[in-house]
Amino acid sequence: MIKIGQYNTLEVVKLVDFGVFLDGGEDFGNILLPKNSVPAGTQLGDELKVFIYFDSEDDIIATTEEPLAQVGEFAMLRVVGVTNIGAFVDWGLRKDLLVPFSEQRRRLEEGENVMLRVYTDKASGRIVGSTKFNRFLDLTPANYKVGQEVKVVIAEVTDLGYKAVIEGEHWGLIFKTESFGKLFIGKKLKAYIKEIRPDGKISLSLQKAGRGKVDDLADKILTSLERKGGFMPLSDKSSPQEIFEAFRTSKATFKKTIGGLYKKGLIVIDRDGIRLNDN
């Protein structure tokens, strides 16, 4: 079954001067992949990974170009124009993506970057964008487990912290006290389920809970020391930013981890850094 607005792997069934035709099945027939998108050496029977969408004439077409987001995904995209039907954003393809006025929480302006959800409008069948995220999120119960690693994208900044979209399906919150490093709208990263409240709201952490995060970080620190000749100019006196850039962790977790390594006799903590214990 062909998935509009997503990647599909389709068989080449016909070669023509202006491209190749791909097998779209009974529902869609042959789908054109224009010549400028056809990989060199393509032959009949080859299977190609292509993105399927609508061209400027609203005909189904294939491309090997990579969009910045597929249907069902969130992405930060740039507004390249505003017309009487809505705003158009650049999503990496020749035809820009429409964000109808009815799908804008506020009027978008040309030149700004905006967080969007790409989806297929059921009424028209067209691929469009929306800034009304609540229409797509928290529609099903959250079946995550505390401590589970998930993929998230930062969608909003609030007084409490950063609202993030979890696996494209649910809202989650990274409290300011749980945030470190450079977070911004549109950033994609991994996080961990910290708590699922009775009302369904989810809090997130950027680090594994408890012993797991310390053990993982300890291994990373020891490996890094070995690669760097046994010494690193990082210690409990280093700035949070220096520690984050080196290990993507908070200063508190770093201090706890090197303290544990010191107690085990694996490292020595000097004034200017840490080093492996030669003894």
Automatic annotation (TrEMBL):
<protein>
    <submittedName>
        <fullName>GntR family transcriptional regulator</fullName>
    </submittedName>
</protein>
<dbReference type="InterPro" id="IPR036388">
    <property type="entry name" value="WH-like_DNA-bd_sf"/>
</dbReference>
<dbReference type="InterPro" id="IPR014464">
    <property type="entry name" value="CvfB_fam"/>
</dbReference>
<dbReference type="InterPro" id="IPR039566">
    <property type="entry name" value="CvfB_S1_st"/>
</dbReference>
<dbReference type="GO" id="GO:0003676">
    <property type="term" value="F:nucleic acid binding"/>
</dbReference>
<dbReference type="InterPro" id="IPR003029">
    <property type="entry name" value="S1_domain"/>
</dbReference>
<feature type="domain" description="S1 motif">
    <location>
        <begin position="70"/>
        <end position="132"/>
    </location>
</feature>
<dbReference type="Pfam" id="PF17783">
    <property type="entry name" value="WHD_CvfB"/>
</dbReference>
<feature type="domain" description="S1 motif">
    <location>
        <begin position="3"/>
        <end position="65"/>
    </location>
</feature>
<dbReference type="InterPro" id="IPR040764">
    <property type="entry name" value="CvfB_WH"/>
</dbReference>
<dbReference type="Pfam" id="PF13509">
    <property type="entry name" value="S1_2"/>
</dbReference>
<dbReference type="InterPro" id="IPR012340">
    <property type="entry name" value="NA-bd_OB-fold"/>
</dbReference>
<comment type="similarity">
    <text>Belongs to the CvfB family.</text>
</comment>
<feature type="domain" description="S1 motif">
    <location>
        <begin position="145"/>
        <end position="207"/>
    </location>
</feature>
